[in-house]
Predict the 3D structure of the following.
Amino acid sequence: MGQDAKNGIRMIAIYGKAGIGKSTVSSNLSAALSTMGEKVMQVGCDPKRDSIATLCGKLMPTLLDEVRGKIVGLKEIESVIFKGYNDILGIECGGPSPGKGCAGKGVDLALELLSRFNIFEKKGASFVIFDVLGDVVCGGFSKPMRSGYAKEMYQVVSGEVLTLYQANSIFKAVTRLSDLGVEVGIAGLINNMRGMKDEEKIVEDFASAIGIPVTYHIPRSKTVQDAEFDGKTVIEAYPESEQADRYRELAKKIQDNKDKPTHIPRNILSLGEIWEIAAKYV
Amino acid sequence: MGSDVRQIALYGKGSCGKSTVAVNLAVALQRMNRKVLQVGCSPKVDSTCFLLGGKIQSDNILEFYREKGIDEKKIFEVIKEGTDGIWCAEAGGPAPAEGCAGRGTALALDFIKKYDVAGKLGIDFIIYDVIADVVCGGFAQPMREGYAKEIYLVANGELMSLYSANNICLAVQELAKSGAEVRIAGIINNMRGVVKEKELMQEFGRLLGVGIVGNIPRSELVSQSEAKGGTVMEKFPDSPQASEYRNLAKAILDNTERTIPTPVELSSIMGILRKYQAL
């Protein structure tokens, strides 16, 4: 269940392979939810700090940069919470400088601070979206799912065979954490399409084979690039476009998932099995 | 490892085509009489898959180490012979959601060195294909002393790809400041097909102080050869795309550039994009 029993805040995490479009999906989802009356906070969990850029118009300073070497209080944390499009609140966890230290530990510390100071409650958020770096290849990036920050996960994929295969690392992580008693599950796949032939069918077949529903198929559209070029989401830059409608539909689906159960993958497919699914449509 | 072994590492944003470049480069080099070892440094263990008939290598170093241990004999059970006799190794990683992937990579690389894999197999060229961006210290492991001093950035003309390449330059600059011998040897422009991609990459390279070692056009043959379980070099050896990879291999063999880069601010990258892609 995505709803936190304690405070009624929907906390969801967006995972997926690097380059698949997580931040684009997250930011447009946040923007769409905000226009539907939700109070949204987006938390970027990637040292590259590029999650909230299109909500705020540029790259913003990070929580870890702000608190480094300081005694941390509410004031320091509040100073890196930025108001973006339609009053969406954005924060970037930040991380070590490239090539140094442990990025996972950085995200871990940032999340711990947000929780210790009850930031989500204080800001009156009804939706918190965690946009998490690349694949969960190590313990560090499983933090948002591990410690109960986000029990409701969405996996962004496309119809490419290797992309679907690489989602396995997330599926294995969820299965493993669930076995250990952590309350975590995948609410659905978001197919952020590359524009392949029969891409929807491939992803639907893959989804039913692993026992996880497809929440939505987002078509590829040049509008996305045009909007990002202006440093904006599609919802802000081209609210009347068809692509904006698609993101609003995605947001509605996710809103409606409120009391629905999440899923643990029924099985993990081998690369060969995924090839077989794709081969049906080639 | 003997000093006659050339060791290069490919870095770049996730999904920019590092592994595709790596496998085609490996085949091109092997056909120029180099003895190549490709080492996948991603816990996803899919780097060498298209050198092995489109199958994920059944064993990887870390998993094997955890289950059976690694010694001077066993290490050769996890290094497989692929296309044209190219040697393929996958470092592996921790179980998903546990442990540190970078530390795992470091351990796997240590085994390759300690048991003199290159010497025993007569390898003279090692390609490290490294996961995504160097976001943490873990993935800087192949840049450590005694491994790859020669780093190639795989990038395309999209904003986030350039941003990641710039981040990798930051890491190399920092390491060089602290005395490491690691250097950037060039940019491989693995093109996406954005407007004026060659020109804008040229300018990006100039800002970083780094040369362009190859411009690889986008080609349908890449996914067609992958669907057949192999590289473009093998499946379409007479295609123009295969010539591009051969040219890249030649350029890398002849390349003597070793630069401490000068990373830039994001605003400079945006500036280049505006200049070449303004509507």
Notes: Residues 1-5 of chain A have pLDDT under 50 and may be disordered.
